[in-house]
Design brief:
DUF2293, 50% helix, disordered N terminus, alpha+beta, DUF2293 domain-containing protein, 3 domains
Length: 390
């Protein structure tokens, strides 16, 4: 078995892991091809990696293992919470197959010219211990699993964010107690359990009992409260039907929650004032646009009375109506778009079109029946001969 960056294990070691040893590491650990053909495992690894890279611009060993269905996402969550000695304990294959997959991922990534970065995997528990992928915990092998591969064309800002995420310490996680349980430290009980290695502690024994619960639902308040709080923890509940942990809210300091609430209230007042100003501005813009639209109608159809042109403009230009008058072309006073607005008005107001529809006449047939009348009105308006009532 060998590790990342060319460092071999199980009796074979290299003085320094790095690019010079990478080819030797791949040669030892890459599953042999038969008659030069790509193995089934290699095809599967490449397919999973391509999908992850296309979606997130980065791919990790965990992405590959979950994509291969060797380990479930829920089991990965349990491992990240520090409740498993090693991720290998939850996988459907042994360590040798895991290393084979990671070796194939590395080979594919280097052929694609991807950029390697080592992520930090620590438990979401108070001890913040390093997570292990394999039971043996060999340094070289563990390093191979921690490598994440990112697209070479990432912007500097996005690569900086990726690097920060790779080194970020995960949030503390607290579980909602779903049954009768006893704290391993004080023999008491509480609504929440705090995982601590193999133990389950109550918030008091975990020094989290001074925190208050903020339910999920208000993203802005949760984000600000967490930012204000020196100590915080994510509260999750296990969904047995879906076989996964689901976020319920966060535990934060009471003072931090109060400050976050004040900040959100101040912002809400500011947003309300901004909405009112925007409403006045939009109303003024709508009036100006409808006036311009009416002017364009009378220019294209001089036989249309100013009152009728105003009515058409108000109707077609009504905000959020979805009518042709709200289209980008109409707002640019495009001749075709303005004509369509006039045609729609004439069809409904000056012909028997609506009555035909009410009588059950199909829409296409109804339009054919009123076409002569429609064309007559449009011709009259275009030639500046106004008809009574039009």
């Amino acid at each position: 078995m060998v590790g990342a960056g060319g460092a071999a294990v199980n009796g074979v070691t290299n003085a320094r892991p790095g690019a010079a040893c990478a080819s030797a590491w791949r040669a030892r650990r890459r599953p042999a091809r038969q008659n030069g053909r790509v193995s089934k495992l290699e095809r599967r690894v490449v397919a999973v990696a391509e999908s992850a890279l296309a979606t997130r611009k980065v791919v990790s060993a965990v992405d590959v293992l979950t994509g291969l269905r060797w380990v479930r996402v829920g089991q990965v969550d349990t491992w990240r919470q520090g409740r498993l000695d090693a991720l290998e304990a939850a996988t459907a294959v042994d360590a040798r197959k895991l290393v084979d997959a990671v070796s194939l991922l590395r080979s594919w990534a280097e052929q694609k010219g991807l950029v390697a970065g080592e992520a930090s995997y620590v438990a979401a528990s108070r001890d913040r211990r390093a997570l292990r992928f394999t039971r043996t915990g060999d340094d070289a092998v563990e390093q191979a699993f921690r490598i994440e591969w990112s697209a070479a064309d990432l912007s500097a800002a996005r690569r900086q964010r990726l690097a920060a995420r790779q080194q970020a310490v995960p949030d503390l996680v607290v579980h909602v107690a779903t049954g009768v349980w006893v704290c391993d430290a004080c023999d008491g009980t509480a609504p929440y359990q705090v995982p601590e290695g193999d133990e389950r502690l109550c918030p008091g024994c975990a020094d989290l009992d001074h925190l208050v619960f903020l339910p999920a639902g208000n993203a802005a308040l949760s984000r600000r409260a967490k930012k204000e709080s020196t100590l915080s923890a994510i509260v999750v509940r296990y969904n047995r039907r879906r076989k996964r942990y689901e976020r319920q809210g966060i535990l934060v300091e009471e003072g931090a929650l109060a400050r976050a609430e004040e900040s959100c209230l101040a912002d809400e007042d500011a947003r309300e004032r901004r909405r009112q100003r925007d409403e006045v501005r939009r109303d003024a813009a709508d009036v100006a646009y409808q006036a311009a639209l009416a002017g364009r109608i009378t220019a294209l159809f001089p036989g249309c009375s100013p009152e009728r042109a105003d009515a058409i403009a108000r109707r077609a230009g009504e905000r959020s109506s979805g009518r042709v008058g709200r289209s980008a072309a109409a707002k640019a006073l495009d001749e075709q778009a303005v004509t369509l607005a006039v045609v729609a008005s004439v069809r409904h107001e000056d012909t028997e079109y609506d009555a035909l529809l009410m009588a059950g006449v199909p829409r296409r047939e109804a339009r054919d029946r009123i076409r002569t009348r429609l064309d007559a009105v449009l011709t009259t308006w275009r030639t500046n001969r106004r008809e009574t009532g039009l």
